[in-house]
Each structure stands twice: as structure tokens, then as C-alpha cells.
Amino acid sequence: MEKSYNGNILLIGFMGAGKSTVADYLKTKYSMDLVEMDQVIAGREGMSISDIFSTHGEEYFRNLETQLLIELQSHGNTVVSCGGGVPMRERNVKEMKKNGKVVLLTAKPETILERVKDDHSRPLLEGNKTVAYIAELMEKRREKYEAAADIVVATDGRSAEEICEEIIGKLQV
Ligand code: S3P
Of 169, 164, 168, 170, which is closest to residue 25 (Cα–Cα)? Predict the structure, then answer.
């Protein structure tokens, strides 16, 4: 029988850690609903994340993230791909913990750079696509990411399938 997981799973981690890819895989393989936070926010605002940042500022975007996390508490059997900055607010961590299990995906700065280098949808990385910049921002976030996480899964050099099996295995223990 296919393994299943009935609660909600919140994927956190740095930009390019693989949250969207893993979320898609979990949705298909375990028949979960999928909420891609950035996509929902961009859809509601009718503009891209970059445009939200440049028009309204980062704080405005961060408030929308908090609001969405609270709304998601009424969902079940859902995988939530959280924006990379979500765990930086203490309030968000509290709301995530009420939602379900928080899974931190990690990757080395070199891996992140490789994954994001041709993407222009992340305002925080535009003009900053170097291993040094990524490593520094990652280090600044590390403590909060780790404190928010129920489990941690490394993604470097691994397929979505391997990563998902590890997540479901660890959550079922
Ligand atoms: C951000 C990550 C992005 C997006 C925004 C800010 C961050 O999401 O929410 O650009 O602060 O790390 P992804 O992690 O899905 O790229």
C-alpha cells in the first residue's frame, strides 16, 4: 500500500532549496492539496513578487505571508511551500506550528546558486547571485530555520523522490 501522511506539511528553507519541486512531488504521490504561498499571494495581489516588493515594500509582502499562514489553519492534507523568508518572523513560526509539521529543506550555497542562477523572480537575489552572498544570507537565517523545523532533510544531489521518501518516513515515526 502507498504510504500516506494525513496531516499538513509545511516546507521551509532557503530560496532554491527545492520547496516547490518537493511540494509538487508530495502533491502527486501522496494526493495532497498544494499551496504555493508565493503563487497565492501574487495571484491575490495581481502582480509578481518582485512587483509587490518594488511597489509596496518587503514589510507589506511579509504581512501577507502571515495572514495567509493563519488562513491555512483551516486546511487539512495540504502541503504548503512557504516562501524562504517565512520562518524569520516569530509570529509566523507560531502559526506554522499550529498548521502541521514543519520540514526544513537544506542545500549548500553552491547548489542554491546553480538552481537559481537563471531565475529572475526573487528580488532578494537579483544582483546578488554569488556563493558568498548566498552563504552569508543563509548563515543569518540558519538559527531561525532550524528552530522552526520539526525535521531537517538535505537535498543536494538527491531526487525529489528520495527527498519525499525521507520526509514521509521521518514524519511517520
Ligand atoms: C524570499 C523567498 C521567495 C519569495 C520572496 C522572498 C525570501 O520564495 O517569497 O522572493 O525572503 O527568502 P522562495 O523561497 O520560494 O524562492
Answer: 164
- Ligand 1 center from residue 50 Cα (angstroms): 10
Q: Which three cell numbers mark 163?
A: 527527498
Q: Which of ligand 1's atoms lies nearest the C-alpha of 141?
A: 12
| pLDDT, tens digit, 9 for 90 and up, residues 84-135 | 999 999 999 999 999 999 999 999 999 999 999 999 999 999 999 999 999 9
The values of phi and psi at residue 63, to 5°, are -70, -35
- What are 17-56's pLDDT values in tens digits? 999 999 999 999 999 999 999 999 999 999 999 999 999 9
Residues 6+ apart with CB under 8 A from 95: 66, 69, 70, 73
Pick the atom of ligand 1 nearest to 50's CA: 10
